[in-house]
Design goal:
Number of strands: 6
Number of helices: 3
CATH architecture: 3-Layer(aba) Sandwich
InterPro entries: Acyl_CoA_acyltransferase, GNAT_dom
Organism: Rhizobium helianthi
Protein name: GNAT family N-acetyltransferase
Distance between the termini: 49 Å
Structural class: alpha+beta
CATH superfamily: Gcn5-related N-acetyltransferase (GNAT)
Strand content: 25-35%
Largest sheet: 6 strands, mixed
């Protein structure tokens, strides 16, 4: 059988689904259903406009925090901790046993350590001398 490999600097939703769909089907057949469920917490200003928050999901008994953003002018008030606590509490309700997150930001790394996360891996350096850290926390 002959295959062509085509490199491109962008991908379409159809291209992504051509990889994602069969991969999810394979993983579900091999490991069981993931029971993936999205989780979002919006940080809103007085007018109700979303200015930041937390985006993630729960699956296979774990919470994954994909994105967490606090606007610079609102940092230092414990909002990251409140967002993490809310997400972790919801994850517990979903019968999760822990949470994981990654970051390249040294300030965020210190915050996650403060909130009970432990470093489970590190990679780099990337351009600019930064490293990515993977962290987890068991409940």
């Amino acid at each position: 059988m002959t295959f062509r490999l085509v490199l491109t600097d962008h991908y379409t939703p159809e291209m992504e689904e051509a990889v994602r769909g069969p991969l999810i089907a394979y993983n579900n057949a091999r490991f069981g259903e993931s029971e993936k469920k999205e989780l979002a917490i919006s940080l809103q200003d007085e007018e109700g406009k979303m200015t930041g928050g937390l985006i993630g999901w729960t699956a296979r008994g774990w919470l994954y925090v994909q994105l967490l953003f606090i606007p610079e002018e609102n940092r230092g008030h414990g909002l990251a901790g409140r967002l993490l606590t809310m997400a972790e509490n919801e994850a517990r309700k979903r019968h999760c046993i822990g949470a994981y997150i990654d970051t390249m930001n040294p300030d965020a790394l210190q915050a996650y350590l403060k909130y009970g996360y432990k470093i489970i891996g590190k990679h780099g350096p990337f351009t600019g001398g930064h490293h990515i850290h993977w962290l987890s926390k068991t409940f």
